Amino acid sequence: MIIIIGAVAENNALGKNNNLLWHLPNDFKHFKEVTSGHHIIMGRKTFESFPKPLPNRTHVIITRQKNFLKEGCIVAQDIGKAVSVCPSNEDIYIIGGGEIYKQSIDLADQLDITLVHQSFEADVYFPEIDLKIWELTSESFQPKDEKHLFDYTFQTFVRKK
Known about the structure:
Elements: E1 2-9, E2 13-16, E3 19-20, H1 25-35, E4 39-43, H2 44-48, E5 58-62, E6 74-76, H3 79-84, E7 92-94, H4 98-104, E8 110-116, E9 124-125, E10 134-142, E11 152-159
Parallel strand pairs: 1-7, 1-8, 4-5, 4-7, 5-6
Antiparallel strand pairs: 2-3, 2-9, 8-11, 10-11
């Protein structure tokens, strides 16, 4: 199964200047729990926003740069090649950024979204979730608290048959 995972603001904002717009520790924990042990596909800029490769995951980096290499990572030139290097019998997680989400939303079977209940100024946005194509199958609201400045909701969408 191909799963897109990401945290998205109410106005579909994802980030600005290659940085996230919020800090939600429980979202990071959720991301780590569901992606650990799996292949994760991302664009080069998303990869470069990490201080180091994420542990216990196989990184597949999409870039048009011909000589881009990162030790311990797989490099692909497009989303099709990136998916093709992943095991077909395992869940694959697409983790961003915005352009990779746009290129892969038609390939995805599921969306694992953390909806941040706020709008932000951004330079990267998530594609519109078309409810004619996607069905919301679960959601769990999380109120803001001393560690989370914004309310947020974990949502799962599956592609309608």
